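Q: I'm teaching a short session on how sequence maps to structure, and I want students to see two examples side by side rather than one. Could you give me a first protein with its sequence written out and its structure tokens following it? Keep the formatting plain so it prints cleanly on a handout.
A: Of course. Example one:
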Amino acid sequence: ASLCRQPPTLQQLMLYMARGVAFACVASCAFAAPVHRELLLDSVLDSVGHAAGTANSLVSATAESVATGSSSWLRWGRTDEESEPYVSTYTTENSSQPKPELLWSEKVMLMDGVGYHEHSHTAKDGYYIGNIPPIKRLGLPSLNLHDASQGVRTHHAAMIAQVTSWPCALAAGGTWDPALVRRWGVALGHEFLAKGVNVALAPGVNVARIARGGRNAEYLGGESAHLASRMAATYIEGMQSTGVRATVKHFGFNNQETNRNYYNARVDERTAFEVYYPPFEAAFKAGVAAVMCAYNLVNGTYACGSKELLTRDLRERLGFDGFVMSDWWAVHGFGYQNAGLDMLLPGNRMLTDGSHDFFSPDNLAKTSEPGVVDTAADRVLAEVLRAVPTCTPPYCGQEMLRARATSDEHVALSRQIATESVALLKNGGRLLPLQSGSRVALVGSACDARNDIDAMLRQWNLANYYTIGGSGRTIPLSPASVAAGLRAAWEKRVEYAGEGPFHLPLDPAPPAVEVVNGDHDDNVDLAVAAMERADVAIVCGATTAAESEDRPSLLLDQSGFIGEVLARATIPTVLVAMTPGAVLLPFAANATAIVHTFLAGQETGHAIADVLLGRENPSGKLPVTIPLSEEQTVLPCQPVEGVHISSVAGLWTQGGGGGYGVHYDCDYTESLHVGYLGLHDEPVGFPFGHGLSYTSFGYEWAEEPPAAFPPGAGGRLELAVRVSAEEGPASGGREVVQLYLSFPEGSGEPRRQLKGFVKTESLAPGEGVAVALQLTCRDLSIWSVEETAWVAVPGAFLVEVGSSSRDLRLEATFTLAATGCSSSDSTGPTAPTGTTEGGVADPEE
């Protein structure tokens, strides 16, 4: 009754639902806005529907009163043509049978998306973000495609309490743990299947060329093609092991969001193959089902219509054999199928005269070269036969709006990924971990950041300090802030202490700190006053990023506040930074310790608290450089003076082939020297690969490094390194052993390229482990434009091994003879580059 008198926000309603409160009366309140109705219905059915007795009759009455909006899931799929949903009779057990023959009409069905309102950016009720209809004659399932970067996209309010809001892909990359990322891929696959999705629109693997890039948080490898390659391969293997087909994106050169439909990426061939293509190639070797082409132009042609990009490079040179889908509304003319595009999405027509009906049966028949439609349909059909059949849109209300996809195990895994992504950038005086029981001033609004669900549902690309904005967003229901994480630890300690004369804990109380202030805003005077009552101050700062726009700067949103607070602090300070990519920390010298994480989803605060309190030993490493200034970064390309970029509506006024009409060149003048590779001779804030631990590690060669690369086919250079834990907590710590390679002089290659890494198991003080790092002939090769092939570079190579790109503990040189190897001997960017003996740590007292 009180809820009906005081209309709650959607977030409050969802919290009640999550706590199992049966609030059937709320569902019939007059305040229930259309955006709330599906959630209300779902919550009533979940909360009340399982209760005994008269509650069941209450459900029916309440559901009837709520289901008045046109989007009620109970009415999804009710069409005039049919009253029963289609159910696929195909199973993956049939995959050994000959591929079925398709009719012409069925072939074009596989190439053109369905499920959107005409002349609209909105999907119809019961449809996913992308939809390919089933081939009913053959009993084949539909392809249900859905966004994916931070988990199942919550495009509907009812989904928010049912899925996991995971850390962003860049945070997963920051763990430097391929095995963990594989587990993540498996968990994501299970969540997608539970929600009726059998094609996930992930992973993203674009290299972070632009530090401000609005979608950098969606990409697995940061500034390193090698890191992205390793992570992408295991992600895809994990996800596709569940039957969900993965989509690697965005091909190619979608490195900025500023004017993403207008800029023309001008990239030389060698740079393309050495810097930007390897993560895609790794995905292909891992068996990825699909590639999504990008919005931008590449060397003068839109990516989705470029035969050089989609046929010559993608298929003939990189060996991709899956299907290529367009990004949404990224097709601007007829004939894109002849360039290598197999599927147009989402498939609706944006003009009433039909002039943009690019993949209609008639237009495909008129504009396709011989055999193109057959080939494209065969590529899509191959993945239809591999995908797990789920529901068939529009009859997907049960899966989409009611199925619970998350689990306690997934929440625990989300917390583990978030925790392992935390990078300890600085730890002056070994301030961290915090002394248990100490008094802490928690200052800055980012310490207790809001999660405005209503606002995010209203704006598709609105971000916050837990999740990215845009198509890859998974809205968290009730994310843990830093304040919440520390409060939970303190409450657990208090509960553990107990009361009464017979309470005698046998183990030490869990670590916790007492927060002395309850208000966490950006008032400098109040922050300073709070610090006077504390032993340590934790100062929080954060910023956001979203699809369709690049960040306006690399500063934290609270940069001015943080600078003043740190300057006036008279007690030790810990800066906690939460970002979607690289960041400027001009006040770093004034902070005693610095902890950084990329947008970490619903478990953000718990993960940060785990590290601050020493419950977990930090092991994250930076996949990007923290620069000293923006002058050290590549800025988003802007149109030259006098070039006017029209509105998006310009796309739909080009009559049938022109695209947006106006575009401008974006020259990749830095060539191979992307990110950290272009900064070796400059001081930076914190370098690529950096991340401290509460454990100190020692390095030594376990075996004398070879002096020459082994001759003959299949040759590999093996380097054996022993890593030992010297000091640190008894629970142990993990190290990421990194291998950097410098080519012979005159090769034109950047120095010190990441070519291998291994994350050890946890090592307690006194324990050591032998790590094997491998280099293949491909690692020693460059792309030859003249020979259109990888060519090994003879001469002397320098290998450096250490804890970051600038904390290098070991070095060795070896030579490669002119006839020492062939690049065809290696397995490309997914070749194993590091293991530990026996796959686990080898403790040594």
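Q: Perfect. Now a second example for contrast.
A: Example two:
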Amino acid sequence: ERSRNLRGKVFDKTIKSTVEWAGLPTTQYSANMAKGGSGGGEATMRYSMHLFLEGKTPMGLYFTLATVGLIILNIVGFIMSTVQGFEPSFYESIEQLEDVSVMFFTVEYLLRFWSSADDAEHKMIRSNTRKLDINMTRLSWCTSFYAIVDICSIAPYYFEMFSLQFTKAACKGEGVIIDLPAVQFVRIFRLLRVMRLDGKYLEAFTVFDDIYREQKELLFKSGFVGAAVWVILSGANWWAERHNPAMEGKMDSIGQASFYTLCNLFGEFPLVNERGPAGKVIAVFTAAIACAVFGIFCGIFGGAFQDHASKKKEERAKQAAEAGDDGLKDANKESEPILVDGQMQSFVYKVVHGSNSLGWLYENVMLLLIVANCGGFVYGSQAHVAANKDVSKILDALEDVSVLVFTVDYVLRLYAAGCHTEYAGLGRYNYMTRFYPLVDLCAIAPFYLTSLTALPDINTSFIRALRLLRVLKAESYFKSGGFFTIVDDIVYENRDVLTVTGFCAVVLWIFFSSIMHLLEKDNAMMATPDGDHYYKSIPAAMWPTLLNLSGEVPLSDFTVAGRVVCGIMGIIAVGLFSIPVGIIGDGFADWADDQFGDGDDAEDDEDAPVVNRELASGGTGSVYNFVEGLNGAGDYYQTLLFYLVFATVFQQSVETLPDYKAAYGTELDTLERVCVAIFTFDYVMRFVTAHHDPAFKGKALPWMRYLFSFYSILDIVTIAPYFWTLKYPGGLVDQYDEALRMLRLLRLLKMDKYIPSITLIDDVFRNNAIVLTMTGFTASVFWLIFSTMLWMSEQANTMDPTDNGVTQGMRFKDVPTAMSYTLIHLSGDYPLLDYTL
């Protein structure tokens, strides 16, 4: 008995030392000892281990960080193991890392299984004794999300090991080399273990489940509609293209057609050139209507996620308000400048920030110089311009003057920054690390770098390209704030949601890249123009997979399994990938509402001029009532004009088909004469009755005002070429008859009289002029920067993805040429994907 008590005291002292080493407070130790009863020592050790593994102690936190590092190292090792060309020792090192990692994760799993009895989330109590049921608690833990992830991260290793042993035994000990790549990719599930680092990530993952529960009925209905549209269009495409030899059997069944139909519903048309007439009609219908119907499912999910993000943001703002804390972001806001009249520093501050008349002139001169610099750089990137010495001298002189002005501007801004108390004195060092001062510094740094003769290995193209950063200086002149600053605020406010969705996107990216590598690495149809393979390794597969996840399908000749995976990416992953973009867009819209609001819309509507549609009197008044549709006969006349607009568009479209033009040329010419005659009559009547039009009534020279109005010019442009060719057959206008005939399509704009659309768009532009100017400027900046980056990286690319003799280097030989292809990419389309690394 004394010996047993002595061992118990020693064991208890050991446990208490372990608890103190793990960082567990003594009160928790004592409380757990009391609950443990006679087995208090073991229970306390188990509880200490549970806290340690969950990272809730100082040493446990280090353990968690080390585990995360090992997981990331494992994922990188697995991805790089699929790349060929390294030394054998490299692959041996990866295998050794895998052996050590599996041993570590196995021990960790066993310890988590043992200590899960103290996991409050899975605790099971016996109904008869009201005591802890350890076995059932552990069983409950085994079915949890993280436990399944843990077992999936080590199971492939043992599966391969035991499969190898079984195969050797079956072959009587003979050496048999087997490869089980189908289970190797499961190792990437270890990446999900990173979420243990912070519990909010798992909490955010439950948002998907909440959205499903809240929107379940709507998701099922929209999913059913989308599936029905998919099946119907698959059958239609099969019917239209089943006998088309250009398809090479790709639509010989509804099952085969379903993949390409799914691509069409994503907005991608990989076989558009091979389609027949009926197939093209179906493709047009798909692009115009069906894509919107099919996108409802993703829209519901994305909208619900954004609503959740808005609620979380409101909760965070409410909590911050209750706590009297404006957030960390306020710490980065500048204080109001202290300006003193007559003081030089205050005067300089007003000038460089455009706060006085001289400052207004200063800002405009700087903007003009920035535009001139960017234009000069783009123009000078062309080979024939660079070879022209006279032009080069002018561009060099512009560069010298610009650097001088920008250097003086930087010094003045640094001097004037002292008007803010936090930047006074040595505080200017803090000012120099802010966004816009760094942009100002980058605007002049390339000039001085290229002037240093001690750096002979500098890539001058790269240094010259840095001059484009000067365009970012222009953003500082937006009085409402720069776009990048606004986006920074939006990202900060939605950091939790963006972190989770970004993490999910990375997991999905690696996951699907691994699967597509395993499924398509032996597919000969996936060869690149230079003889390589798009899916030869996981790193190589990550580029086309990223395009798939963004909704692009530049490659479509997959295996059956690859098509299934590509379809899953389109249905599920695209919605998740689009959430961050939607959140940023929604945040920018909220910012615009806060800045410019719509509170004055009601007043604007009341003050808007109301067009008087009363009947006109007099002889010409009756004519005006007729052409404006203000009486019974005029109503029929307006209907006739409505349909004649479509008739002229139909006639113009049919005339572009040689066979139909040859067969129905007489009828088409007759239709054209009738339409021109009626539109000419309409124009003359409107000109004669212009003084009755409320827009010109009571004003001087109403007929001249109408003559130069928008609809008058539109009418002249659409009918004048016809009469000109009658008067001067074979003349200049007749020589360009086909091009001038296209002007008749402008009659579609006359539809705005009946269905207001152009005027509504004009109102939208006017009401959102500042926001559109800001976003347009930012889009132009991105366009110019990415065009320059592609010019730098692809001008030596010799791959010819279209087999027509035009290499990637030709497409990106200079910045102006690169801008057209870059604009296509910025619009979300990637018809070319054979880029350098």
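Q: What should students look for in example two?
A: Point them to this: DSSP finds 36 helices and no strands in the chain. Also worth mentioning: Confidence is low (pLDDT under 50) at residues 18-39, 172-182, 599-612.
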